[in-house]
Amino acid sequence: MTPQATAPSKPQSVTEQSSAAGASAIDHRPRTEKGQATETELLVAASVLLADAALTARQASAELTGALSSWRTGLRALRDPAWALGSALSCARALTSPRGLGFGANGGIAGELARAVGNLTYRRPAAVTMAVDAFAMRIAAAAAAHPNLDTPCARRLTDAMVRGDRLETLRALSALVERLGVTRALTTISPVIMELLALTGLLDENPVNDDFSWVTLAGGIPATDPFLGLPSSLLKHLNSGAGRAERTDADPILAAMLAGSDNDIVSYVNDIGALGNHGLVLLRRVACADGAVRFVLLLPGTSFGLLSNSTPQDVVGAFDGLLRIDTTYTRAVKALLTRAGVPAGAELMLIGHSLGGLTAMNLASDIGVASEYRITHVIALGSPIDAKRPADHTTQVVSLLNEHDVIPTLDGRGPASPNDIPEHWLELAWLDETYDYPLSHAPQAYSDSLRGAQAPLRERVNALLRPYDGAITANQPYMLRDK
Predict the structure, then answer these.
(1) Is the pLDDT of residue 360 over 70?
(2) Which regions of 48-183 does DSSP assign to beta strands (E)?
(3) I want to staple 127 with a disulfide (CB 3.0 to 4.6 A). Which of 58, 110, 442, 450 is the partner?
(4) How many CB atoms lie within 10 A of CB 65?
(5) What is the pLDDT of residues 430-459, one digit of tens each?
(6) pTM score
(7) Strand, coil or helix: what is 9?
């Protein structure tokens, strides 16, 4: 996984936002809408420049550290001690001077030992200082579109985290939770959750978890956790099931819901809600109006009851799906498609919520799946898919986002992220009345929005689904298992 996850900038409006308002992100005084938009754009642009400078300074520090500790330098020192002494002093001065790279040694055994000492003694490199400022600018830019981030309680928390003041951070977080409750406090900071986690990793004494912060700064999906720095490869061992799919019958509630199903995004979301998140998925066969037979696969999201359970729809599976393509969920779905006898070359639309949307994108990103079937659409609701790409460039990707939902920001692309999605994707985002997480993440919240205030977005998505208009000839639920 690469640290940099860039994409072409939008030549036209691909992301639609139903509402955005709030106070200025810099001095918190009201401004005109035009001035506020310009302020936000300037903050994001400045954060990009600072992030590039920070990454460049970090790379320069690593190269200078490598040169200083290289065996070639030692060999040259034997021949020319005066040169070696002068070079060593110059390198050391550049690496440790506040006017230079500011204790910026990193890379290699010697560099990492020096970096660990710097962390423990609170010696902040210039690269870290610039990275912190870049994150602070992203937070300020996000506050312009999310005024709840601009309240005194929220500002107290974000300011403390930017300063690296952990005691004040705990006090501010406690005050925020006491005032708003756990769920509303989480929702309040959700637009900048990745930036706050990156600041935590960057400013603590642990040198092992810094990669999370640097990858987030570069716009990628971190492959380590922000607290201990544990690698994502551990998830591969925790989520190693081969994946299995078993045909099952719909219970009366699900059967009643499926009886009224239609080729409509709201209907699909309601069907996903009725499937629940205990392992069920649905394969639908449609005799389309143009005479073709097409298939729709509905993929629900995560069960938060246990960290891990006997189905792929668990918390471990969710993090694995975020970081990798080949997961227990995707393996189980591939077993389902084989068992169901979906013919090679068949057209298939994948629709998923949360982890289900991630899995839909992972399947579309799998060259084997894309070669076997024609993945026409990937429709994800509340899913962090922005750093993934389908193997077939003609696949229509639609991402539906409630901006009060925490989960979509886990891909590192929050409201103030400088990275963009491909121009041919369709991302539709809105703010609704379902403010608190996890209610804002529920399929029902998305369904309610698309039936109500966001009805124009519903029609826009439905227009893309027209090839699947026709008669539903089969609705077959499957139970997915890890093993």
Answers:
(1) yes
(2) none
(3) 58
(4) 23
(5) 988 766 777 889 999 999 999 999 999 999
(6) 0.78
(7) coil
Per residue in 401-438, pLDDT (tens digit) is 998 888 888 887 766 666 678 889 999 999 887 667 77
Residue whose C-alpha is closest to residue 405's, from 436, 380, 379:
436
477, β-bridge pairs: 282
Task: Kindly tell me the burial class for residue 155, based on how many C-beta atoms sit within 10 Å of its own C-beta (0-12, 13-18, 19 or more).
Answer: middle
Residues 6+ apart with CB under 8 A from 176: 153, 154, 156, 157, 185, 188, 189
> In this structure, what token pair is assigned to residue 426?
């369709």
Q: Which residues pair with 470 in a beta bridge?
A: 288
DSSP letter for 239, please: T
Q: What is residue 343's DSSP assignment?
A: P
Query: Could you tell me which residues are beta bridge partners of residue 350?
Result: 297, 378
- Cis omega before residue 125 (within 30°)? no
Sheet with 426-430, strands from edge to edge, namely: 15-17, 426-430, 396-402, 374-381, 347-353, 293-299, 280-288, 470-481, 244-247
Task: Give the SS3 label for residue 413.
Answer: coil
Contacting residues for 202 by C-beta, under 8 A, at least 6 apart: 128, 131, 132, 135, 210, 213
